[in-house]
Amino acid sequence: MDVRRLQAFAKVYELRSFSRAGEELLLSQPTISAHISALEEELETQLFDRLGRTVLPTQAGDVLYRYCTTIFTQLDHAKADIMALSARVAGELVIGGSTIPAHYIIPRLVARYVAAYPEVQVDMTGGDSSEIAQKVADGTVHVGIVGAPASYPELVSLPYLDDALVVVVPASLPLPDLTGSGWQDRLAGLPWIMREQGSGTRQTLEASFAKGGLDIRDITPVLVVHSSLAVLECVEAGLGVAAVSTLAARAYLERGTVAGLDVPHLDMRRSFYVIHHGKRYLFPALRAFLKICGFA
């Protein structure tokens, strides 16, 4: 089978669209269609049901896609091994980051990395911690930096950088006293802006609340926001209070548009983790990135 035809097939399978597959592969839609037709003729079976604008894989298509992922992985390994013979670090590296690492950690790492290994094509993608872990587990991302250890047993989670959450409030809001008895009720009664389920920030906050005798489910947030920067903007606008990374909050605290709320009974320390698949080949570009991160 022609590898280019298999690549076209896999992209149509993933995107459920001939036109979008063509855009991704920089090929015309007729070329994509020709590749699929040639495969169907070679295999003497239909790989997709074409229902108007909807494209759905057949059972044969599902089987072929499973083998395609193995084929592409083996080809990548072969290419990496051949490059390793000549001590070249080249190819593609897909790096995923949850919100805070994507904004404050990964850019500087990538700057050092591309300066040292200019032949590597770096692709950065974002998401919350659980989304990045899922992408590393399924192989669409090679390495990630996230705000919580990955829950997948096949992934390796390497502690990389210590961090802590800080509760921030609008500068105009009087700071409540959270040192005496009943502090839990006073804290829970504040207008909270929460990160979404699955974010590392949300996981750390839930864990610290639980240790302090609070159940986060008892709090009805005024907003659920999918970005720490958006959370800070909402706090600055006076919409409520929130727990965010000190890395993200620093600039807002320094310019005085938000204030930090001391919550002495909560331990909101955490770490960021570099995650990669423990059962997959550490090809040269990935090994080099791990070295940049300080892991030999």
UniProtKB/TrEMBL annotation:
Single GO MF descriptor: DNA-binding transcription factor activity
Pfam annotation, one family: HTH_1
InterPro entries attached to this UniProt entry: LysR-like_Sec_metab, LysR_HTH_N, LysR_subst-bd, WH-like_DNA-bd_sf, WH_DNA-bd_sf
HTH lysR-type domain boundaries: 1-58
Protein keywords: DNA-binding, Transcription, Transcription regulation
Claim: Endoplasmic reticulum is one of the keywords in the record: no
UniProt keyword annotation of Transcription regulation present: yes
Family: Belongs to the LysR transcriptional regulatory family.
Protein name, UniProt field: LysR family transcriptional regulator
